[in-house]
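seq as requested:
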Amino acid sequence: MPELPEVETVVRGLQALKLPGRRIRRVWVDFPPMVAPLTPAEFARRLQGRRITAVERRAKYMVIGLSGGVTLLGHLRMTGQLAALPA
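struct tokens:
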């Protein structure tokens, strides 16, 4: 299970990709129970088009601020991996 230093490394990597200021164009849900009670389509609809305003860490969570006052909370789970794919 990833510990705090690994999460910080991922967050810094996302910041280095200059994610703040970029817009979410597509959303892919690999494991639908993670977005329940929303359906993957509803989750995607709520995120698409929003601009990323910040990428930060709070404890072992990635906190991604989005336009419209929305916050996306992420956890690396057991694998410690996160994929940011080009559009």
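Strands lie at 52-58, 61-66, 70-75.
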